[in-house]
Amino acid sequence: MSLLPKMLIASTLISPFANAVQAKTVKEVFNGDMLGTTQRYFESIAGIPRKSSGNEHSFRVQGCNITATIDNNDVSALRIELNDKCQADLSTFIDSYAPPANTPLTVGAFEFDNFTFMADCLGMCGNAYDPSVYALWEGPHAINFMEVLLEFKLVSDAAIDAATAWQNHMEQAAGENYVMDARFNCDDRFNTQGYNAFKKVTPTAITIGHGLSTLRSDCAK
């Protein structure tokens, strides 16, 4: 047998195995063990990013969009866009604080309710983009002060209705200017009402990590 046929046979035998090794799953990439790893190691698991902007690097894994925040060459946060096919297991990040497996991932699924609610805007947002409401939770020392940020893009009826209910309560209690100026992003007066409004709404994305950038960060400026 000539050398060429032998090479073709070897290639046929090796390639399927190599592809199987390289194929990664969402559970492997969106995983608490990835936090704190180097960018090089993370990309050895997730693959080459499809897009990078500043410290944000976007990946496509099993048809799901995952974004890694890289600070000082280490992964500081991971974000996944959620839908029927793309779900997140939070147990590797926050252990027993995570909602039970196969439970709809809503703020009401967590055993705690001390979320901080923020929003890009509420009412009179214009048509340039779809605004979002955010629910931030900061974990205790037991889980290394891990931060969880749920994002609710205001596109579904459930999310819009929840945002409207939250907005109406704040306007009645604090006035329209309070809402128009988004002052709710800088205090905790209406977090309980935000939690009650969004308790059963399914988020469109979730970010977990340390030092998450939020709208609350702008309040100190």
Q: What's the arrangement of strands in the largest beta sheet?
A: 1-2-3-4-8-7-6-5
Structural class: alpha+beta
Please give the share of residues in helix: 25-40%
Shape: globular
Distance between the termini: 75 Å
How many separate domains make up the residues?
2
Q: Mean of the pLDDT scores?
A: 89
Strand proportion, as a percent range, falls in: 15-25%
Q: Determine the oligomeric state from the structure.
A: single chain
Order of helices and strands: HHHEEEEHEEEHHHE
Rounded to an integer in angstroms, the radius of gyration calculated over CA atoms is: 21 Å
> Would you report the number of β strands?
8
Total number of helices: 7
Catalogue the unreliable spans: 3-21
Task: Give a quick account of the main beta sheet: strands, pairing sense, barrel closure.
Answer: 8 strands, antiparallel
Keywords: Signal
Account of the 3D structure:
It is globular, with a radius of gyration of 21 Å. The protein has helices at residues 3-22, 26-29, 39-46, 91-94, 157-174, 176-180, 191-198, and strands spanning 51-53, 56-61, 64-71, 74-81, 116-119, 132-138, 147-153, 205-209. Strands 1-2-3-4-8-7-6-5 form an eight-stranded antiparallel sheet. It has seven helices and eight strands. It folds into two domains: 20-83, Beta-lactamase Inhibitory Protein, Chain:B, domain 1 (2-Layer Sandwich), CATH 3.30.1450; 89-211, no CATH class. The protein starts with a helix and ends in a 12-residue tail after the last strand. Strand 1 and strand 2 (56-61) form a beta hairpin. With 221 residues, the chain is an alpha+beta fold. Helix 5 packs antiparallel against helix 7. Helix content is 30%, strand content 22%. Keywords: Signal. Residues 1-20 form the signal peptide.
